[in-house]
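Recall the central idea of this unit: under ordinary conditions, the amino acid sequence of a chain determines the structure it adopts. In this exercise we apply that idea directly, starting from the sequence alone.
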Amino acid sequence: MPGPALIVTCALALPACGFIAWGSWIDACERRIPNACTLGVAICAAVQMAVQALLLPTAPPPLGGVGERLAWAAGALLALLALELAWRRLRGAPGLGMGDIKLIAALALWVGAGIVAVLAVSCLLASAVALVRRQHEFAFGPYLGLAGCACLVLSLLV
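Accordingly, the structure predicted from this sequence is:
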């Protein structure tokens, strides 16, 4: 029988994936990810981490420890902000959108070190589709959303 922390995690993963899907859809249609989507994902993760800290203070659950997930989110946010600023300075045009960067940080709150896999899969999928369609610009949110939700669900199943 699953413990209460796992039940809460699964219950919060559903709305988090809903927010991710909503943001991905809007990005595909309008080339922007609303802050409300990213905030929804982050709030679900924060509630899950609070429950985890209260119910399982010593045992790391399938998603990783709270401190580890916070460190991955902060690291991803800072690294991608630096990368985007450097890209804009060198190329004079945006590369990765700020909505994408915020969504990646929010996803890292859920999957911790799994964000590396999410980014790798997202980049591979986006690159393959862009090559087939011969696109130079595309919305990255749908690829992040697909890989992020898959990583979140897989981490709960393992």
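The helical segments are 4-30, 35-55, 66-91, 98-111, 115-133, 141-157.
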